């Protein structure tokens, strides 16, 4: 605890009370509810769920409210809560080919089986403040078609011509790792890298993804497809002999298509970068897929020439909760360490000034 500061535990308790007061804000205004956060700040909720790796909209909204809108603090709170939950098992792999699609766009083909589905997106909005949102008047919601379409993947079109690498198969008997229960070791297999990227900070991954597009990596990407929709989660129950449905979750999936000139063992073809995150989070899924492809240097005999291609650099710095702890610990008392360094600098300064003064005297004597 921060007991070394003046006041000790009493000061901490007062700080907590002040935080609660500031969180509540002006008492003349109604308190914001968790339900309002879920319904009206949905993208913030989705990010917290994704980076805390816990799919629960109500708990994520509660964390956002508790953190006063500080996204990383909310992620930290929810991830800490996640560690208290029992582990009952692992679900079957989610089949995104059977996604009930709400939004689906591709930058590679104009005409697609199933068409381009714009869905809810900022892509075509003018970035102008809307004064109308100041009001509380109810606005009639337009009729919206519920998600329910299943459409083929864009990558299947290229796969039909043999122009893109296959999805690939894990070795027989391979058990997917779990970063939440196992320490990180490098080199890291792709399934663990994807876990780390899915939990990684959106801003950090966005910056890395941008760097690959500016030449700091080997990517010439096309958005093969971005899709948002509901997927079913199933759990295998050995006593029943089959998997049962636990329900559906909303996810965003992105496949980036990248050119590959081929190698001694592989023909020229397109390769993939992959991103999959909770909720609606296209920017995160796209960034994740770009970084995923950049990290696959070993598979394609590529040289590591940029930060986004170095898995130790990327994975070790992608986690915002870990980064937050390491940065914010600097606020804790370091009095003894600093006093030691302060004494060292003072002694070095005295020695420097003495040597400098002696040098000037020596020069003066030589001139006389």
TrEMBL record:
InterPro entries for this protein: PhnI (IPR008773)
Keyword Lyase found: yes
GO biological process, one term: organic phosphonate metabolic process
Alphabetical UniProt keywords: Lyase
One of the record's GO molecular function terms: lyase activity
Source organism superkingdom: Bacteria
Protein name, as recorded: Carbon-phosphorus lyase complex subunit PhnI
């Amino acid at each position: 605890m921060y007991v070394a500061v003046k006041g000790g535990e009493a000061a901490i308790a007062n700080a907590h009370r002040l935080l609660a007061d500031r969180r509540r804000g002006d008492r003349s205004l109604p308190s914001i509810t968790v339900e309002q956060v879920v319904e009206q700040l949905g993208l913030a909720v989705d990010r917290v769920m994704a980076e805390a790796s816990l799919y629960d909209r109500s708990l994520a909204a509660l964390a956002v409210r508790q953190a006063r809108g500080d996204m990383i603090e909310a992620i930290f709170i929810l991830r800490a809560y996640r560690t208290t939950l029992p582990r009952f098992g692992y679900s079957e792999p989610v089949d995104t080919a059977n996604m009930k699609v709400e939004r689906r766009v591709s930058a590679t083909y104009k005409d697609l089986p199933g068409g381009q589905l714009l869905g809810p997106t900022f892509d075509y909005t003018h970035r102008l403040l809307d004064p109308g949102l100041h009001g509380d008047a109810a606005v009639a919601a337009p009729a919206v078609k519920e998600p329910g379409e299943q459409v083929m993947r864009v990558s299947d079109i290229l796969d039909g011509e043999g122009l893109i690498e296959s999805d690939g198969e894990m070795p027989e008997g391979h058990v997917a790792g779990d970063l939440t229960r196992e320490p990180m070791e490098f080199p890291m297999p792709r399934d663990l890298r994807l876990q780390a990227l899915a939990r990684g900070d959106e801003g950090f991954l966005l910056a890395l993804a941008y760097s690959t597009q500016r030449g700091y990596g080997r990517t010439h990407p096309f958005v093969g497809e971005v899709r948002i929709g509901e997927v079913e989660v199933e759990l295998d129950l050995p006593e029943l002999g089959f998997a049962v449905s636990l329900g559906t979750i909303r996810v965003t999936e992105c496949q980036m298509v990248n050119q590959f000139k081929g190698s001694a063992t592989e023909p020229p073809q397109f390769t993939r970068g992959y991103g999959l995150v909770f909720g609606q989070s296209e920017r995160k899924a796209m960034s994740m897929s770009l970084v995923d492809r950049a990290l696959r240097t070993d598979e394609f005999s590529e040289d590591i020439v940029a930060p986004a291609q170095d898995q130790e650099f990327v994975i070790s710095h992608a986690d915002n909760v870990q980064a937050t702890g390491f940065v914010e610990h600097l606020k804790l008392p370091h009095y003894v360490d600093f006093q030691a360094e302060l004494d060292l600098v003072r002694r070095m300064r005295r020695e420097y000034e003495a040597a400098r003064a002696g040098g000037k005297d020596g020069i003066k004597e030589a001139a006389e």
